[in-house]
Amino acid sequence: MGDPARGDFWDERIERMGRDELSALQLERLKRQVRRCYEGSAFYRERLDAAGVGPDGIRSLGDIEKIPPVTKEELREEQKAHPPFGRYTVAPPESWGELHPSTGTTGVPVGTIWSRKDVETIADFTARTMWSFGVRPEDIVQNAFSYGLWVAGMSVHYATQKIGCFVIPIGATQTERQIFYMRTMDSTVILSTPSFGLYIGEKLRESGVDPGEQNLRIGAFGGEAGAQNPATRSRIEGALGVDAYDYYGLGEIGPTFASESVAKSGLIWAEDHHLIEVLDPETRRPVAEGEVGILVITHLTREATPMLRYWTNDYACLESAPSSCGRTHRRSPGGILGRHDDLIIYRGAKFYPVQVEDVVRSFPELSNEFRIELRSGEDTGRDRCVVIAEAAGEGTSDGLEAVLREKLRGELQVTPEIEILSPGSFERTTFKAQRFIDARNSEK
């Protein structure tokens, strides 16, 4: 499977498939998946019957709109009512391979099961994504995604084996150990969350290591937004000496199923395995191409725990024009543009942490770390929005707060308060950084 004769594509026939042929393949797989769910899952059968969609109710891709989207909260309630896995597990237990719950960062983890065939499928399209941003059999891959129940580490590990790479299964462990193996094993590829990648870069600089001295050439970063943010991408690339690529996945759908290619033209979706929609968050109707809405994803090939129209809560847009790298599957320029959960409403303005990130990380005087807090005013009772940043070094300019406040005002259309902490004030993380805290309730 790791044949370098593949050229620029892991599976050229699939990755360059024409739109009509790809749509026909999707419809065939969608019909089969809906029938499987109707016949094998009481959870889905009840939902489909309530919507008036029988096992033969899908005759075109547009018919998917007849099926109501399913949310993470509904999956939690289903698992609570029918423990431990709910009634949406379709494949029989003898086919099960692995259990992978969601991270639980937004509530009780939702358990999903991979069948043994699912493991093979996930490994293959993960290998496809890695090949698309330049990973090849001769690479030494430092896999700094978490292993175990969190899915990304495992899927990348399986994919490196399919490609034929030498993998260092280090996981999201101590930063010093990351640097040790990076230097002693001459790693050429690193995968981690953006926050952890930036932290490793900080420690490299503190150690006096020039990124240009490393053999690293590729970095892929997922698990949180950031890698397609221009300021964050620039910081990661400068700190680690790599070309940085965005990676996307989520526990209920799959860990590593969309990434940028070498063209950096946006996340490219594996549409032969997933039906991708972007819906208006209010009307739940499809938005026009290029417009921003909520990603809704349907499994076309998942065996064990298929999702029919999973409401991701992630904002993105879709483009159908082929990428300049030649891949024809639809893509999302700019990657994930925010989470519906993370929407901050302050004095009539609406914004997301990624917008603050872009501004903060455009200042070389500031470190990579920041946090947004909503607080209650002690005297007035009015809400206060405070952006807390951290100085990159001692002796920052006296006017930095004013300049940062003005730039944020231009981006957010509202003026936050600014606090700049001394270097090293924020705790660093190997996982997902918490960028927004609503402290109003804790203050009452």
Can you describe what's shown?
The chain is built from eleven helices and 20 strands. With 444 residues, the chain is an alpha/beta fold. It has two domains: 1-339, 3-Layer(aba) Sandwich (Rossmann fold), CATH 3.40.50; 343-443, ANL, C-terminal domain (GMP Synthetase, Chain A, domain 3, 2-Layer Sandwich). The strands form five sheets. An eight-stranded mixed β-sheet has the order 4-3-5-6-7-8-9-13, sandwiched between helices. It has a four-stranded antiparallel β-sheet with strand order 10-11-12-14. Helix 2 packs across helix 3 and helix 7 (175-184) packs across helix 8 (194-206). The longest helix has 22 residues, at 19-40. The radius of gyration is 22 Å and the shape is globular.
Please specify the SSE layout and strand pairing.
Layout: H1 12-15, H2 19-40, H3 42-50, H4 72-81, E1 96-101, E2 111-115, H5 116-132, E3 140-143, H6 151-163, E4 166-168, H7 175-184, E5 189-192, H8 194-206, E6 218-221, H9 230-240, E7 243-250, E8 254-259, E9 267-269, E10 274-279, E11 293-299, E12 310-316, E13 331-332, E14 338-339, E15 344-346, E16 349-351, H10 353-360, E17 366-376, E18 383-391, H11 400-412, E19 417-421, E20 436-438
Helix pairs in contact: 2-3, 5-6, 7-8, 8-9, 10-11
| Helical residues, percent | 25-40%
CATH domain class name of the largest domain = Alpha Beta
How widely separated are the two ends? 59 Å
**What's the architecture of the largest domain, going by CATH?**
3-Layer(aba) Sandwich
Instruction: Work out the count of structural domains.
Output: 2
What is the rounded Rg?
22 Å
Task: Give the number of DSSP strands.
Answer: 20
Biggest pleated-sheet summary: 8 strands, mixed
**Average predicted confidence as pLDDT:** 91
- Give the neighbour order of strands across the main sheet: 4-3-5-6-7-8-9-13
CATH homologous group name of the largest domain: ANL, N-terminal domain
Low-pLDDT runs of 5+ residues are none
The SS-based structural class is: alpha/beta
Query: Tell me, what's the shape?
Result: globular
Treating each run of at least 4 consecutive H or I residues as one helix, how many helices? 11
According to CATH, the fold-level topology of the largest domain is Rossmann fold
Residue fraction in strands:
15-25%
